[in-house]
Design a protein that fits this description.
By secondary structure, the chain is an all-alpha fold. About 65% of the residues lie in helices and about 0% in strands. α4 runs parallel beside α7, α5 crosses α7 and α10 packs antiparallel against α12.
């Protein structure tokens, strides 16, 4: 005798002499164990992907710069003179003393690029995590409860998705202020509808399966079914969304800083550095602009490589 949907689990063989088959695996120890085995196998496959390895190394480097930047950079990111009191040369091209040259104020570009990772990585990942948490809750409500609640939230989500993210973020930060927490909140709010739509689609697929019906027949509450039964089975798209959103958040935060809506000078934020010095390109001083721009590009590409590796394994 088989109980429950075959797509979600099978009935365990009866114990010797027991003569009674146990109930379905879903929601039980066996189902939890199966999910752990799947996650372990997925993680093993992800770690073997070249894109994940390369992206992970690049991200690890920038995380180390964010945490220990003042120890990695040989000179101060904000200083303009040697310990002897001699001023740094302004607009000095890259050389043995100043590896990435100096900017118009005589500040060491290499030190500023290294330390600048702190501003980006203190904002973008947290904004992405908040958006995924909020989007997951909304997606669960929309996909499981449905009805009027789904219709109302879906219309609001569609309205948000029709707006240009960067423009709305720029207007919001300009109006509310450019503190770190305001930037985090604005970016998280703008990314939440995208995550909610993805989670909603996954939840709708799960909501009509036998294990959900079984939980309803047991008298489980709506909250229990959503977070204990359905949520563990839609973690795959949520993980993919998180990795993708981090990359978009990094780009968005850097763009806001470039447009003057993020950290302001003398901050070493990469976007702020590019904004401050890109006008010097016409004069031939390319290094204060190119190096922080390359830093943004390498971090975004690295995160995207990780996201692609995760997505290719999870959705295989």
């Amino acid at each position: 005798m088989t109980i429950g949907g075959a797509s979600m689990g099978q009935v365990m063989p009866s114990s010797a002499g027991a003569g009674v088959e146990p109930g379905p695996n879903i929601g039980g120890v066996a189902a939890v164990s199966d999910r752990k085995l799947v996650r372990k196998e997925n993680w093993r496959l992800i770690r073997r992907r070249p894109g994940f390895i390369i992206g992970g190394l690049v991200v690890a480097f920038w995380v180390a710069c964010a945490l220990f930047g003042s120890h990695i950079a040989p000179k101060s990111a904000f200083g303009t003179q040697f310990p002897s009191g001699v001023a740094y040369p302004t607009n000095q091209s890259p050389n043995g003393t100043f590896w990435f040259g100096t900017d118009r104020s005589g500040r060491d570009v290499f030190a500023r690029v290294i330390v600048g990772a702190r501003d980006v990585l203190a904002v973008a990942p947290l904004a992405a995590i908040l958006s995924v948490v909020a989007g997951t809750v909304l997606g669960l409500l929309m996909g499981y409860v449905r009805g009027l609640l789904d219709n109302i939230i879906s219309r609001l989500v569609e309205a948000f998705l029709s707006l240009p993210v960067l423009l709305i973020a720029l207007l919001s930060v300009t109006t509310l202020g450019n503190s770190r927490w305001i930037v985090i909140t604005v970016v998280a709010v703008l990314f939440t509808p995208i995550v909610a739509r993805t989670v909603r689609s996954a939840v709708i697929t799960e909501a009509d399966l036998d294990y959900v019906t079984s939980a309803k027949l047991r008298g489980e509450t709506t909250g229990f079914i959503m977070f204990r039964e359905v949520l563990p089975n839609v973690t795959a798209p949520i993980i993919v969304e998180l990795t993708v959103r981090i990359g978009y958040a990094i780009f968005t935060v850097a763009s806001l800083a470039f447009l003057g809506a993020g950290p302001q000078p003398p901050s070493a934020d990469w976007g702020a550095q590019v904004s401050l010095s890109y006008g010097d390109l016409n004069a031939g001083f390319w290094w204060p602009t190119i190096f922080p721009a390359l830093a943004i590009a390498t971090l975004v590409i690295a995160v995207n490589l990780i996201a692609d590796a995760v997505q290719s394994v999870i959705e295989a």
